[in-house]
Specification:
This protein is an alpha+beta fold. It has 4 domains: 1-40, no CATH class; 53-87 and 253-483, paralog of FGE (formylglycine-generating enzyme); 92-176, no CATH class; 179-249, no CATH class. Helices cover 19% and strands 18% of the residues. It contains 9 helices and 18 strands. The strands form 7 sheets. Strands 17-4-1-18 form a 4-stranded antiparallel sheet, with no helix packed on it. A 4-stranded mixed sheet has the order 15-14-13-16. The protein is globular and about 70 Å long.
Length: 483
């Protein structure tokens, strides 16, 4: 063997030895007992403002018939894994952070645009070594709210409008569009969508499939008139990117919901102040659609990942809870609980204190101490440490609604997901909401009652909270652990 070939063979052998010797838990890579490969594991820090709901099971749905309300028994056993859940509903202040982030990102784009002076400091186009990278916004460069030059002032003013009636300058919510992409792991993992045809069918009595799988993906763009154009593309599978869906969502809440939800009522002060006035900062955000709540969860995930500042780090995403997760958390893992508290009474027997914010009597909204929504966390939490799981505002879940939704779901981490295409019938765009609200009677704030709303509707009585699947392993069983 030539000297060059010998050196090459030895180098390859040494490389194998080196890689094998680095494998933790291996005593002898060339023979011996199977001892397993060690790997690092971790438990994530407690997410801010969230409560850990440990894995458990529950009889979900109503267990008793109620002829007055037309409720039929529909209880079935389900189990869910551990997850973190916001201890309160998302507040106006928290949602404003999202709105202002979108505003500031648009401003930075415009300040870097040559049409507004082209200040390159608002965008990062190369790394520390001077190598070109995909351009991204420079969040360390402050927006010149004061002492802006003429070009900068034009950029800032472009996001505001003068109210033609009041003459007051106000943020133009129509421009606040958030674009994001979501990789659909579920569709990508299905056997029928595998790139290798031989792995789509395991039955060796059948031929290897020859047809190209048909996929559907959502996409969106803003046209020249500033309108959001959404469409669903159907085509043959070409690669992993076919499972990346693009969404553009206007994030500003519909403050007019207070008028549109209640005819012949003087609710104009809420239109003007509920989202904008600081006095309502700690109240639950309303007028937010399912689409907007989902966009908020995506932004919240990206916002966290940016703060970690490391490449390749993985965090479980913030998301809306599944219907099963929501009900399990609301009932504190107790199948007998119709409400987040024990028993069927809406108040304590000794002092007559209400457990939740709802409408106690016809026309009497204030008997529980509130007229509309209340500050989050006003009432006592349930046994899991979660506030306002009944009343205050109804809450979006991630689960799609059909009349047979219970029959479509597994009993393990149940979820029915349907991403309706723009051209789908409107009835396919319904999502499940839970918990009832400040305008509902006691029956409708039950934890075992399912309701629904269209995913693009914005109501003065619907809000949301986020969850995150726990990384690591829950030690306790069927108990909520406070942060």
């Amino acid at each position: 063997m030539e000297k060059k070939s010998i050196i090459k063979a030895l180098s390859a052998s040494m490389a194998v030895v080196f890689l094998a010797s680095c494998a933790a838990g291996s005593r002898n890579s060339f023979g011996g007992e199977v001892t397993g490969i060690g790997s690092s594991s971790w438990v994530e820090p407690n997410p801010y403002g969230m409560v850990l709901v440990s894995r458990g099971s529950i009889k979900a749905g109503p267990q008793e018939a109620d002829s007055i309300w037309g409720v039929k028994p529909d209880a079935r056993g389900v189990s869910v894994d551990a997850f973190w859940m916001d201890e309160t509903e998302v507040t106006n202040a928290e949602y404003k952070q999202f709105v202002f982030w979108v505003r500031d990102s648009i401003l930075r784009e415009r300040l870097a645009d040559p049409a507004y002076g082209g200040n390159e400091d608002f965008k990062i186009v190369e790394d520390r070594e001077g190598n070109p990278i995909e351009p991204r916004l420079n969040w360390s460069k402050p927006i010149p709210w004061r002492n802006a030059d003429e070009d900068e002032m034009r950029a800032i003013e472009s996001l505001y409008r003068i109210n033609p009636i009041t003459g007051i300058k106000e943020l133009d919510g129509e421009q606040l569009n958030y674009r994001y992409e979501v990789y659909n792991h579920t569709e990508a993992a299905k056997r029928r969508n595998r790139m290798n045809p031989a792995r789509r069918e395991y039955n060796t009595d059948k031929p290897v499939p020859s047809e190209i799988p048909l996929i559907s993906k959502d996409t969106a763009y803003v046209n020249d008139d500033g309108e959001i154009i959404r469409s669903t593309i159907s085509r043959g599978l070409t690669g992993d990117y076919d499972f990346v869906n693009t969404y553009i969502v206007n994030v500003y809440p519909d403050t007019t919901a207070w008028i549109n939800d209640f005819e012949n009522a003087y609710n104009e002060p809420y239109v003007r102040m509920y989202f904008s006035h600081g006095g309502y900062n700690d109240y639950p955000v309303v007028g937010v659609s399912w689409e907007q709540a989902t966009a908020f969860a995506n932004w919240r995930t990206e916002f966290l990942k940016r703060s970690l500042g490391r490449e390749g780090i993985y965090v479980e995403p913030y998301r809306l809870p599944t219907e099963a997760e929501w009900e399990y958390a609301a009932r504190a893992g107790v199948s007998e609980n119709k409400y987040p508290w024990e028993g069927d009474l809406p108040m304590t027997e000794d002092k007559g204190c209400y457990y939740a914010n709802f409408k106690p009597q016809e026309g009497n909204y204030v008997q529980d101490g509130n007229l509309i929504t209340s500050k989050v966390g006003t009432y006592s939490p349930n046994e899991f440490g979660l506030y306002d799981m009944a009343g205050n505002v109804s809450e979006w879940t991630s689960t799609a609604f059909t009349e047979s939704v219970s029959k479509r779901m597994s009993d393990l981490n149940p979820e029915y997901r349907y991403d309706a295409a723009q051209e789908d019938p409107y009835k396919l765009k319904r999502k499940i909401v839970r918990g009832g609200s400040w305008k509902d009677v006691m029956h409708n704030v039950r934890s075992d009652i399912r309701m629904w709303e269209y995913q693009n509707e914005q109501r003065s009585f619907i809000g949301f909270r986020c969850v995150r699947t726990q990384i690591g392993f829950s030690k306790s069983k069927g108990q909520g652990v406070k942060k």
